[in-house]
Amino acid sequence: xxxxxxxxxxxxxxxxxxxxxxAEKLGFHVDNDQRMGEQRFIQLTPLGSACSIAFGVxxxxxxxxxxxxxxxxxxxxxxYQELRGRGVEISEPKQMPWGAMHxxxxxxxGNQWTLQKPSRRS
Length: 122
Prior knowledge:
Elements: E1 7-9, H1 15-25, E2 29-36, E3 39-45, E4 52-57, E5 68-72, H2 76-85, E6 94-95, E7 101-106, E8 112-117
Parallel strand pairs: 1-4, 5-8
Antiparallel strand pairs: 2-3, 3-4, 6-7, 7-8
């Protein structure tokens, strides 16, 4: 059975602040920003990704800051420099024991993100 991950719901406390962070600081594409009465649904997609994130009002019961996600990049040094240049507080890339390179940052609510340049598979 084939399955594809399409959407990850993110718990955030302020939809506008989060939209600005993901769109302006990370460069995610805003796919949808829709209000439906008391609810609000915002969907964004990282450039080159088939999976999106979404947040808003009235969709997620999880505590803001409780998510941890990973973004894969080809050139971690360039991604690190670009994000630093956009004002993202990100750790310097470091080699992990299993071979991958990692750099970590958090969104305004504390949701944890890791940039990873995977080690080459043989």
